[in-house]
Amino acid sequence: MSRRVRTLLVGGIAFVVLFLVAMLVPVPYVILSPGPTLNTLGADASGAQIIVIKGRDTNKTTGNLNLTTVGISRQRVTAFQALRGWLQTDRVVVPRYSIYPPGQSQEQVDKADTEQFVDSQSSASAAAFCELGYPKGLGVVGVLDHTGAKDVLRPFDQLISVDAQPASSQDVLAAILATRTPGERASVVIVRLGERKTVSVTLSDPASGAKGARLGITVGVECFAPFEVDLGLADQIGGPSAGLMFALGIIEKVGPTDLTKGKFIAGTGAITPEGVVRPIGGIALKMVAARRAGASVFLAPQDNCADVRGTIPGGLDVIKIGSLHDAVTDLAAYNDGKAVPHC
Fold first, then answer.
1. pLDDT of res. 1
2. How far is residue 223's CA from residue 204's CA, in Å, rounded to a whole number?
3. Which ranges in 90-187 belong to alpha helices (H)?
């Protein structure tokens, strides 16, 4: 073998080795893919019901209202994996900092995602109760740890009065508490699950810069149902984007109208307590996940329509949704064969 051939052979082998090594080097990217879809009307992988209604009978359901998710690569991505992801039509490769911001660990991001998910469940319940027509008033949104309200008041308690003074608004409640002293006990009348109760709350120190005392709760205008809703999956899914499908699942279980008519409906969208549907990320991948699971209808936030166009899988009908009320009325129209707005 000539010196020239040996040189070319050695150089070729070295190039291949270096190329393979380079392909195995971690790169600062993550790969997004279609994630699991879960029927809010059914059970999770462990067999536990995702939506549990306590205190009233529920409707028999036959269809699907699936929430959709995006899978995120958990391990460090190699250059080879990133390249392969770029070439796949059902994968998206994005900079790692777009998912895990600098200065935040994966654990911190996961914790924040879980908190957003739990908040979305509370918002979904509030929006569903209002859509179902239950009475509206000032109520408990959250209970603060290490305060006198802990284990005494609960979310969705309707506030009636504090020390015999009507608690008709946030401003009125603040004025009542501005005259009180931390450590005193306040007699609070509430309506919980349709039953009027009087509870005693030890007042806590006010927020920084405020006067008087506080109950140890956050409050807001809500609607109040005479039954309890427990929503699952908080230890399995993160982020706010399941809110719309949770709200629809509650309405399907206790409302007067069959929203699915046996159809496989999936969707996504964050939701406010007032029922406004907000845009989310990864909708193209969520549509792929929905269609693969068997969905024929997909509910998409109206502000995501620009992301939807040109990426809809074949056989999937995408309905544009601006609010929970839109979703309820549009599904009824769709089931009757009427025209509905599309992206």
1. 57
2. 26
3. 106-131, 170-177
Q: How many CB atoms lie within 10 A of CB 103?
A: 7
CA nearest 165: which of 130, 215, 206? Answer: 215
269 close to 300: Cβ distance less than 8 angstroms: yes
Name 43's Cβ contacts closer than 8 Å, sequence gap at least 6: 49, 50
Residue 296 has pLDDT above 70, yes or no: yes
Q: Rounded distance, CA 92 to CA 82, Å? A: 9
Residue 96 near residue 109 (C-beta atoms within 8 A): no
The angle, 0 to 180 degrees and rounded to 10, between the axes of the packed helices 243-254 and 106-131 is 40
- State residue 119 phi and psi, 5-degree precision: -60, -40
Residues 6+ apart with CB under 8 A from 184: 202, 203, 213
Nearest CA to 247 out of 277, 227, 282 is that of 277
pLDDT single digits (tens) 84-142: 777 878 888 888 877 878 877 778 877 888 888 888 888 999 999 999 999 999 999 88
Q: Answer with the residue of higher pLDDT: 101 or 143.
A: 143
Percent of the chain scored above 70 by pLDDT? 93
Look up residue 147 and give its DSSP letter. Answer: S
Q: Which residues pair with 200 in a beta bridge?
A: 187
Helix 79-87 to helix 3-23 angle (10° resolution) is: 80
pLDDT band at 285; cut points 50, 70, 90: very high
Rg of the chain over Cα atoms, rounded to whole angstroms, equals: 26
Strand-pair category, 264-267 with 64-72: parallel
CB 284 within 8 A of CB 318: no
